[in-house]
Amino acid sequence: MNSHLCKILLVVAFLFPSLLTAGDAGKLPTTFDVSAIDAYLAAQVKEASRVGLSVAIVKDGQVVLAKGYGQRSLSDARPVDADTRFAIGSVTKQFACACILLLAEDGKLSVNDKVAKYYPNLSRAGDITLLDLMNHTSGYPDYYPLDFVDRRMQQPIAPDELLRQYAGGKLDFEPGTKWSYSNTGYILLGRVVEKVSGEPFGAFIQRRIFQPLGMTNTVYETNQPEPNSAQGYTTFALSPPTPIAPEGKGWLAAAGGIYSTPSDLANWDLALIEGQVLKPESYALMTTPRMLPGSKNTEYGCGVSVRTQQGRQVVAHNGAVAGFTASNAMIPSTRSAVILTCNLDGGLGSLPAQLLPLLLQESANVPSVNGPAAVETVKAVFARLQDGKVNRTELAEEFNLYLTDEKVAGAAERLKKFGTPTNTEVITRRERGGLEVTVTKLTFPSGALRVLMYRQPSGLIEQFFVDQD
Prior knowledge:
469 residues; alpha+beta; seven-stranded antiparallel sheet; four-stranded antiparallel sheet
């Protein structure tokens, strides 16, 4: 369940997309075109021997592509369709964290609870919190750092025995001082859910998440083979795909035990983004990267990586278990996502990193503006309004007349209480009447505001309206 290679591929593709071109297996679209993406994925499966692939793409809150490609099983050539289940590996971790956060909202636990409250005999249990486990900053060694199932993991193991072996010895580092991916912490989180809720993890997640969200093709720790589940395959040094058995019972659990479809995961993504799963404060904690001593940003929240790409927040995670790879990447500000699953070890390759930038592209007809980026202009103008000031040389003639001194004074009185925004993000950028039109979200401890700004190509501001988000 090693996420490190996939994480490196994602970063490389984000920074250097030209290094990850499609080669001979179809041509990667240069713009967001659903039919072209569909054709590209079909070619990738056919020409790159990926066995089977399933995708769901969400754009602006709507599922625009949900389709399967290739075969769920080579032995009987059953095709993959949109309802074919795949193991999603470590994408499970965001669900595990949501379960902890739901119990916190119920008042049954706190993310700041010490491990000792539930497992007093584990190493440094009095110094490690549940949040440390969620953020991968506990120091507990990872029991599954490799990309193949070794002899240990072919045999079943009881979860408490796994914890005794891997969370009962020496730590890799002092809790809270470093970041290191650890599946061990997520086995522990799953057991905490069971102890606090009084029911098996699978029953809790079914009752609180899968069933309410209509995720009818999603199950926890399914037993293969099942009619609508894909068979996992592995390959070594360009060998033909070979069927592979899953990990022994007990090794995945809350760290990677969910089977799902991209369509179901699209439902999950939208529900999470739109506040149907967690309260705003819980969602904020989940999507806030953990900061280490020295202000080092881990770029990891609770079960998800959190990065900025092309000016937007991207919340993502990949997964890899025996015979399967998965990727789930969300763009909360536009209610968009790219979800991919494959029934071949390493089979997704750089596909997630190739497709995500297409969703992040701006409209081609938006004019370029002379001057600072929209986000910097919004921050500067908003700060001046809070102080009851404006720089009238940066305002167009009509807006100068509209924005009277009386309006500025009133705005200052109402806006000053918000203080400095903790985050400023452009949500949409489009063209109207030859102007750049942007909607920017400003997040504060006490809430959020939206700024609608119109700018001429020269940089002059034609409109700057502030409203409650």
